[in-house]
Design a protein that fits this description.
Helix content: 25-40%
CATH superfamily of the largest domain: Periplasmic binding protein-like II
Number of strands: 12
Number of domains: 2
CATH architecture of the largest domain: 3-Layer(aba) Sandwich
Largest sheet: 6 strands, mixed
Strand order of the largest sheet: 2-1-3-11-4-12
CATH class of the largest domain: Alpha Beta
Radius of gyration: 19 Å
């Protein structure tokens, strides 16, 4: 039986599952006796699991704003931004019109009759509300009023996709021709992808002012009496030690690793841009 005092328990966003697994493999070289338990969900759901009393040592989320909104200061003392990313459009060789689509015509291809495209659920997954922000910014960037609502109306129902891995599976299995996804996840799974202009893909801090013009409203009625307004910002991923972790020293050792040079090299190999 695993020693509970030497078992690190992670709750993490699906987008961080593969990078964290690779970091853990390297971490084991210095801490060979450590056992690891991983739970994965959308970032907002991860935060709710912590609030509801999950036994956890480390929390990895796809948006540091979720830490600030829901977990600091009662469940987390501080959090650390570890990497950045961008939104891309993923597809495979058998996606409809995949030989035609590019960074200039993607809106028209996606809105054509036969094409199916998907995004993650914005109520639980940062990739979902970030996709909505990309669509809002695209409407301004291309000066094409109405495309945000048209993309919303035509996309596959977002409730079907509670994580970025759900999106990946939909493209790989042919249930969706395209999905709005993180570049790192596209690279990890070997999907084809189209990069979007930096002005709309949430990758560049130089465009933070323009990104902030996009907003998404989330109303978790069972948790909050009023809606939460989320503003567009450059994509960041973050990690924190749970405030009441019984293995705090070990958790902090992992954070030191993932924020250090060795951990950064692993994150970069997984397609992220380490901070």
């Amino acid at each position: 039986m695993a020693n509970s005092e030497n078992t690190l328990k992670f709750i993490q966003a699906a987008a961080l599952r593969h990078p964290f697994k690779e970091c853990i493999r390297q971490f084991w070289k210095k801490h060979p006796g450590v056992n690891v338990e991983l739970k994965t969900a959308g970032s907002r759901k991860c935060a709710r699991m912590v609030i509801e009393g999950a036994d956890v040592d480390l929390i990895g989320l796809a948006d540091p704003a979720v830490f600030a909104e829901l977990l600091v200061p009662h469940f987390v003392d501080d959090y650390y931004v570890i990497a950045t990313d961008q939104i891309v459009i993923t597809y495979d060789d058998f996606s409809r019109r995949s030989r035609e689509i590019n960074s200039n015509n993607w809106v028209d291809i996606l809105l054509s009759g036969e094409v199916r495209f998907a995004r993650a659920d914005h109520k639980t997954v940062p990739c979902g509300y970030r996709t909505l922000m990309v669509w809002q910014l695209a409407e301004k960037y291309y000066q094409r009023p109405g495309i945000y609502q048209r993309l919303c109306d035509k996309s596959v129902p977002e409730d079907d996709f509670q994580s970025v891995t759900d999106l990946t599976a939909a493209v790989m299995e042919g249930r969706a021709d395209y999905a709005f996804q993180y570049l790192s996840v596209a690279r990890q799974f070997g999907l084809n992808y189209i990069k979007l202009p930096a002005r709309i893909n949430l990758s560049n801090p130089a465009h933070a002012g323009f990104y902030s013009e996009a907003t998404v409203v989330i109303w978790e009625k069972s948790y909050s009496p009023k809606p939460v307004i989320i503003k567009g910002a450059p994509i960041e991923f973050a990690v924190a030690a749970a405030k009441h972790s019984r293995r705090k020293e070990l958790a902090e050792s992992f954070i030191a690793f993932v924020t250090g040079k060795e951990g950064g090299a692993v994150l970069e190999k997984c397609g992220l841009i380490p901070c």
